[in-house]
Amino acid sequence: MTDSDLLRPDAAADTSLTGPAADALVDPPADPLADPRLDAVGDGPRPRLLLVDGHSMAYRAFFALPADNFSTSTGQVTNAVYGFTSMLINVLRDEAPTHVAVAFDVSRQTFRAAEYAEYKAGRAKTPTEFAGQVPLVKEVLAALRITVVEKEGYEADDVIATLATQARARGFETLVSTGDRDALQLVDEATTVLYPRKGVSDLVRMTPDAVEEKYGVRPARYPDLAALVGETSDNLPGVPGVGPKTAAKWLATHDGLEGVVAAVDTISGKAGASLREHLDQVLRNRRLNRLVADLDLPVGVDDLALVAWDREEVHRVFDSLEFRVLRDRLFATLQAAEPEAEGGFAVEVARPRGADVAAWLDARAAGRAALHVTGRWGGGTGEVTGLAVAGEGGAAWFPLGGDDEPDPLDDEGRAAVAAWLADADRPKVLHDAKGPLLALAGSGLPVAGLVDDTALAAYLCRPDQRSFDLADLVLRHLHRELRLEEPAGEAAAPADADDQLALDVDGTGAATTPDPAPAAAVRAAAVLELSGVLAGELAERGGSALLAELELPLVGVLARMERRGVAADRAHLEALEEQFAATVSEQAEAAYAVIDRRVNLGSPKQLQEVLFEQLGMPKTKRNKTGYTTDAEALADLLVKTEDTEGSEFLVRLLAHRDASRLRQTVEGLLKTVAPDGRIHTTYQQTIAATGRLSSTDPNLQNIPIRTEEGRRIRQAFVVGEGYESLLTADYSQIEMRIMAHLSGDEGLVEAFRSGEDLHSFVGSRVFEVEPAEVTPAMRSKIKAMSYGLAYGLSAFGLSRQLRIAVDEARGLMDDYFERFGGVRDYLRGVVDAARTTGYTETILGRRRYLPDLTSDNRQRREMAERMALNAPIQGSAADVIKVAMLGVERALAEEGLRSRMLLQVHDELVLEVAPGEREVLEALVRREMGGAAELSVPLDVSVGVGTSWHEAGH
Question: Does the keyword field hold Nucleotidyltransferase (predicted)?
């Protein structure tokens, strides 16, 4: 009984009817105390049971969050799973239950449907985007070790009623989280319903008084009210002409439904006549809406005790769902998950000064050593306040200055540290090294000899993990916590003392900063130990060479690129911001003129009223609040309503949205222009599971280039002082070239070797026409399909993308595979091979493990299959551009050029050209990029030059 429009009451306090209707009603539930599992609760804090109606809350979450904003990179919609999980984390945090269970409906074939065939008939078909998310919710619950309870032939409500009744008898406090008003019949002094008022984030506490205030009856009489008024969502019709107020009045006057039935002949007026005419219907409603509270379940309340979740399984499930932020929130707000730490780190921290610094480093850090840097970094630079070094012979703390360290090393000690850091023969290990390297360089302490980065090593072992926080990795791999183990009776230093801004107060009342040395030393020691463990795992997974030869060398390249930044024309950005702001205002006014009134163009509710009521436009996809007004739906609507009054409004609305988005982009860029007049983005190597780099603060990979207005933003990225131009170089159709290489398809290989336009060549084969006869429409279809196939695109997905019928899309794919059988065989083979080995592999051996390829869960299996198609191609493209970056940076240094690499955006490099170096730089870039991989087809490199990024485009 999910999402009822109206009501229902408490099974244990059910006022079963007597008199004329007695034989028509189901007997009340058996005494729950007869259950042998239910012993009295002993002394101690009162236990609290949380019962969640899984389907109800997931369904509400689905409509509360837009499906378009919640999907994985493989296309699996996750809004219901995300919303449900977010709600669950909040309730677990806020209510702190001791026992938890989630109940689900098994099917609609229940005893209620057996009695009344029309029960719940007429409900809308489950949305396609929601189908398949309930199994994913159950996987989240399994990872969190929360019990799922179901009962064939009954509904989740009945399971909840049974458990709540048992809990009441045991002295538990019970909370029921559900969007189904049927559960209100369970409310009493021991049981509260947490009812979602808005979405699933705003939960209202429905106590006995709250129920009475809202519905005019106490919870025990709520099912009586529902029987009289009816329940639309369950297709239980009420008495015509009888509303909640009339029903509540009758129940109060006659002491419940039993009294109403007994006095039915005396109730006057049309309402009374209607009641007498529909009395059998009322009695049937009452039988059906009474929750069953005595089910024989496989678990009892004692089996529902909350336990620590399965940390590894949480990582696996949340990674596959791409719930990075949600997982971080889970770990931050709830008690630590298993595995439990077996202890901390026993580290004796040395504090050498002066000449003793060099002596300590020579004696204790002559071999492999780990560093932990304290300080600040970002925006291409940073500042170091201290450095902890951990070697096989112990750990030491070297204060280097700053607000947190009043007693920094003297000149001799600092010089010794600088010499050790710059010595390439002293192997060094860091965690997430790029930021610390920038800070050290910014403090005049450049580093050589980096041989490991534990964040990168963990990423290559498990690229889908998403979170590579040091504390988490140490717990996962070493079963230890980042804390200093002190002698018995002494307090341990907090693991993150060096990161805390809070001040301690000593016995005199004077404020003092925490000593950063112990925590920093612990982190350095942990990195050193973690490095060894991860090295073994990485070797087993075939990733050692990838780390040593590609990812680690790239750290330094990226650090230098971030430090350089790219020059920005602030005046141009400010002018663009004003222009886009003016366009936002102009398009809004033009939209208002069409409808002759002002509305909030950002309000879906107001837009629905304008589009579908005032303008009478065709309805879009239905959602909880009406009909969707997202960009894709409005674009489809515009095509359907061309040359109508509504189309003019849509044109203005979409233009308003585009200008608003561009304005926000420009505003974000303006905030990141540094004092040196340049924008210093931050590159991340551990975000994309396929190996692609990502950019943040600001995200330069997200600068729009498909429209002329968007391309104007690139005009703000200009050549800097002392340089003559920008040079851009990118790969042409690299993913399709990799597809040709991996598949060995003779047709695709021939297309690239011939030098003809790929999509026209392929189109001529598929449509059986000469290349010159391939129309733009044909070429567009082939291009969409060629790229889509590499990402597991289905016929349905292709039909939506091209706005053609599914049968036409399927026929197009069949024709494609008939002409290019090698592609078909490769796509089939790569999934089968991954299912056998457990992973996919790029040209350079980057692996992505996909255990769900053999999952019994269809949704998870299909998600993994799409990943298996995508990873080798996109991952190989990522590897190739990284190899090219290393080659370009190395060649620039070897040839002594002043020109320098500034940006990497997907398959494109942006370089700043020093005076007189343009021709030699272009030749160098073409050579290094074209030779980055040996493929069966050539790597074509396009080059452009100009004074701005836009002008240098090609």
Answer: yes
> Residue 106, SS3?
coil
In b/e form, how buried is each residue of 874-896, taking b as 16+ CB within 10 angstroms? bbbbbbbbbbbbbbbbeebeeee
Task: For tokens 């950005």, name the residue.
Answer: 573
**CATH fold label, 47-214+292-304:** Rossmann fold (3.40.50)
The sign of the CA dihedral 464, 467, 469, 475 is negative
Distances (CA, A) of 365 to 396, 420, 705: 10, 9, 50
Domain edges within the chain: 47-214+292-304, 349-491+513-565, 579-679, 735-876
Count other Cβ atoms within 10 Å, centred on residue 506.
8
Tell me the pTM. 0.76
Residues 94-145: tens digit of each pLDDT? 999 999 999 998 866 666 766 565 665 555 567 777 878 998 999 999 999 9
Count H helices and E strands in the chain, helices first.
Answer: 35, 29
Architecture of the CATH domain 579-679: Up-down Bundle (1.20)
Comparing 93-102, 226-235, 698-707, which segment has the lowest mean pLDDT? 226-235
Contacts of 600 (CB under 8 A, 6+ apart): 606
CATH value of 735-876 in 1.10.150.20, 2.60.200.30, 3.50.50.60, 3.40.462.20: 1.10.150.20
Distance between CA atoms of residues 494 and 488, nearest Å: 16
| DSSP characters over 767-786 | HTS-GGG--HHHHHHHHHHH
Q: How far apart are CA 226 and CA 291, in angstroms?
A: 13
Residue 493 has pLDDT above 90, yes or no: no
- The class (CATH top level) of 349-491+513-565 is alpha beta
